[in-house]
């Protein structure tokens, strides 16, 4: 028999059976038994260190410099955004650590046992886009590394395509190996990656002639109004950066020894690491003006110009490890579970991961990284209008409607407590649609463009309020 979960006595629910007959159950979506919950504070801190030390983090910071901010404004925006997103992250993490359930199963409590597929697919599609972006970046880093070892590789017409394909296959290999491999990679690589980042900062410091020249670039905004118009979508972009994992964080916290371990590990790992590595991006990007004569926001381009082939190889190898870590942990674990949730008896975690890899190829990541505006103001802000409303419904339901009590066994059953109307909770769906419609209205109606700039915040607030109103009228 499955050991009891850490549930309040008031719930009176027992753990789902080890071989539940419901088609809503499979071993990848099953609640994790207590003896398998072994992740410690270090595992969660290392998880965030490894996921934060990546090229998109660097580009988020360097994009703000390219957009006109000075280094202080950029770092403040990044630190504030990560403090904000830490709140829904910890709120959603609680259910995973308490009941051992992944995100798509957690969403069944609010959206219904079938309706949970709606937010799960929204999250999965965004993750597929991120998978494509990270795979493209990793392929570029591999291409630059091989170019440093074999100069003729730089002009080989199939070089970029082959590197992209090789890195895609490497990601697929890690997926096949499973979650234990992911945890091992984070625990081993996280400290090493921070050292590499600091070495890059020291190199830029020496080449540029000190921090004075590196950080001397002033803000291009002459008034507060000009700054605020760029600050708002930038802050939303920072929140959106981890709004994805803020939803599927139960996929990781269901392995936690307890609430303290996951909360402390995340509070230590996320804001501090994001701000630190963002400072590296800000400082090094500013230094490129002195070193190369023009600002370069793409770190792959910067590192490929270090000069010495050995230095380029080491730097690119570090970036490859970082990109592999975050790509599998942040962009495969969740959508693999989400796709599995569509038909648990037929779609396993492995098959869901393969589907994620294939869809990521179709998302045209090169277009999303065309420039800093397409990356921050279109990609990040755009999808935040889809994920903010999901977070609003989940948090309102878990804390204010259900008072943190979930009947775990019913999450895996038809005609149970979470059946609602034919498996869907129409109130949750209505709240989700309302939040998305309002947050993305600015794309179609120019006078409402400011709502789009605040897309995550607007979507979260609207869906949170509408859901509470509809559920209290129930």
What is the percentage of strand-forming residues?
under 5%
What's the overall geometry? globular
Radius of gyration: 22 Å
Tell me the span between the first and last alpha carbons: 37 Å
| Count of strand segments | 0
DSSP helix count? 23
Give me the CATH architecture of the domain at 40-249 and 256-370, please.
Answer: Orthogonal Bundle
| Low-pLDDT residue spans | 1-21
CATH-assigned homologous superfamily of the domain at 40-249 and 256-370: Hydantoin permease
**Helix-strand sequence:** HHHHHHHHHHHHHHHHHHHHHHH
How would you characterize the largest beta sheet? Answer: none
Explain the overall architecture:
- By secondary structure, the chain is an all-alpha fold.
- It has a domain of 325 residues: Hydantoin permease (Orthogonal Bundle).
- 71% of the residues lie in helices and 0% in strands.
- The N terminus is likely disordered.
